[in-house]
Amino acid sequence: MVLLAAAVCNKAGKAIISRQFVEMTRSRIEGLLAAFPKLMNTGKQHTFVETESVRYVYQPLEKLYMLLITTKASNILEDLETLRLFAKVIPEYCRNMEESEIVDQSFSLIFAFDEIVALGYRENVNLAQIRTFTEMDSHEEKVFQAVRQTQEREARDQMRKKAKEIQQRQRDMAKGSRSGFGSSGGFGSSSYRSDNTVFDPTPVEPVKSSYSQPSKPSGPSKALKLSTKKKDVDTFVGQLESEGEKVVDSNKSMSTTVAKMSTPAANQESVHIVVEEKISVTAGRDGGLQNMEVLGMIKLKITDEKNGRVKIFLANNDDKGVQMQTHPNIDKKMFLASSNIGLKNPDKPFPLNTDIGVLKWRLQTQDESLMPLSINCWPSETGSGCDVNIEFELERTELELEDVLISIPCPSGVGSPVVGDCDGDYQYDSRAHMLKWTMPVIDASNKSGSLEFSIAGHPDDFFPVNVSFVSKKSYCDIQIKDVRFVEDDQPVKFSDEVLFYVDKYEIV
Asked: Which residue from 53, 137, 122, 118 is spatially nearest to 83, judged by alpha carbons?
């Protein structure tokens, strides 16, 4: 089917929102929508009407219509199925089918429409996938938020324990000062300093300096148990290391990697641009790429009102054939002609203090040469188990991959693998039964490496192999060249950052 446009209109044919999937003038789409109510036959139960050139497929939504405009050559059954999916999307964003609420949610609805149809053809998606794509849910962000919440919770617990310790010290010193007063019959220098310490609004430092030998508390103090848990953990870690286990602080390594991906760039200018890409790869263990998908987006954030009316100059060096799509409010003709991004109405500024997605692109392929990193895993059965050889090769040498982690599953209950040769570093997670092979950087000067190990098991035990990495270079080689004012074409100071990361990368 070829879908020309999707619109939500009222019974008079006035468009509330409309998304065109082929080149079409505003007057043309308004004319088609205005003609729609006149073509409907009252009293007949139909879901479509036709003219000499187009077909209208519609579904009532209380006082409104969900309307698709297609060519007459399209499959009516596919049209109706697509219409039902469009109609299901509307209630996801609008509780009441009112014009005002449709207008309020127009951007969200248009983004959802774009996930259903691309370049006039229906995408193979369902409602749950559309919700996931439009929410742009990030696993890395969830991990970062979880780590940060854990750190904040631990800091609050530490603060409470410290406060109890300080209060206990104050009570102990108050007891000591009262006993000193009873024996001497007056305010001695020691008692005077002790009293000042008790009522000092910041008592931590004076405790150490002015009361050098406080009396011991009569009962057990909770403050004495402050480091018990940490000592137990340290003792347990020491036992593991003495038994040959290599222990790494997972929270530290996780937070370091996530921070690289989630922390905003320092010294952001009032015009800040983010080029973000994520890749999903599924490859076969015997070679061959089953599927690879790269989703990218350029997000613009403006924090100064005087820089609201700008246009962005791109250097589009893509040679892989990605499909690009601009935001509905972006001048598409200007982008196609010169790769420049600006608003359709140059008199209007971009919204302030909001991350705006102005351009998105997609690449889906089964071409092995487009894989950024190829992984070959060769398990060979021996009399006592398996010898496993695994190697990587950087296929796209223009990329620089950082924090590369290759995770190889191992069979349980057979002990740790015996590693014979390794480029980079490795560690064995005995709880997850996973051998983790890490490289800080893979680039043109360090584009290949290998790992060999032996362990009891069967060749199928070592799959799927999972890979993760981040990169500060765009996979599709889309770069921000310049930003200029619309009025006088003068340059605008801007900052930009690039983030290319893995959503899923596995060899099955």
From this structure: 122
Distance CA 83, CA 67 (A): 8
With b for 16 or more beta-carbon neighbours within 10 A and e for fewer, the 386-398 pattern comes to bbbebebebebee
Residue 137: predicted pLDDT? 64
Residue range(s) in the chain whose domain bears CATH number 2.60.40.1170? 264-369+475-507, 373-471
The band of 224, judged by pLDDT with boundaries at 50, 70 and 90, is very low
Q: Is the per-residue pLDDT at 332 higher than 70?
A: yes
Q: What is the DSSP letter of 265?
A: P
Which run of H or of E encompasses 359?
Answer: strand 356-365
HEC-encoded secondary structure of 193-259: HHHHHHHCCCCHHHHHHHCCCCCCCCCCCHHHHCCHHHHHHHHHHHHHHHCCCCCCCHHHHHHHHHH
User: Could you give the 3-state DSSP secondary structure of residue 26?
Assistant: helix
Distance CA 32, CA 7 (A): 11
Q: Which of left, alpha, beta for 161 (phi over 0: left; psi -120 to 50: alpha)?
A: alpha
- Reply yes or no on domain 3-135 having CATH 3.40.50.300: no
pLDDT tens readout for residues 36-87: 888 876 556 668 888 888 888 988 887 888 999 998 888 888 888 888 888 8
The fold for domain 373-471 equals: Immunoglobulin-like (2.60.40)
Is the pTM higher than 0.85? The answer reads: no
For 423, phi then psi, to 5°, come to -90, 120
- Residue range 459-485: mean pLDDT, rounded: 93
Q: Does domain 264-369+475-507 have CATH number 3.40.50.1100?
A: no
